């Protein structure tokens, strides 16, 4: 489910978000120490389930988590 805050998002943009997550997941976990390796892992098609786990563990809503992923600054080596 795409958060209401991102009405222009589509499955293509969700795929871009998933790809970015793959690059930043470990750094995100370091910034949110309550998350386990299992919490940040997911299978194809289960990105929503992973973000739901993340929201519960970080006490953030889904829109906040998605926005954090979208706005996360990548290290120069990843760009």
Helix content: 55-70%
The fraction of residues in strands falls at: under 5%
Report the uncertain regions. none
Structural class: mainly alpha
Task: Please write the string of helix (H) and strand (E) elements.
Answer: HHHH
Bulk shape: globular
The total of helices stands at 4
Distance between the termini: 28 Å
The total count of strands amounts to 0
What does this structure look like?
The structure is a single chain. This protein is mainly alpha-helical. The protein has one domain (16-74). The protein is built from 4 helices and no strands. The relative contact order is 0.17. The model has no long low-confidence stretch (mean pLDDT 83).
Q: What are the key terms here?
A:
mainly alpha; 79 residues; 59% helix; single chain
Summarize the topology.
Elements: H1 11-31, H2 37-40, H3 47-58, H4 62-71
In a few lines, what is going on in this structure?
The protein has 79 residues and is mainly alpha-helical. The chain has helices at 11-31, 37-40, 47-58, 62-71.
């Amino acid at each position: 489910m795409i958060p209401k805050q991102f009405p222009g998002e589509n499955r293509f943009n969700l795929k871009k978000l998933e790809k970015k997550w793959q690059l930043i997941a470990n750094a995100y976990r370091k910034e949110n120490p309550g998350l386990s390796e299992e919490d940040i892992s997911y299978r194809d098609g289960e990105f929503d389930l992973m973000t739901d786990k993340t929201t519960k563990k970080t006490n953030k809503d889904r829109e906040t988590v998605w926005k954090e992923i979208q706005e996360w600054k990548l290290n120069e080596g990843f760009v």
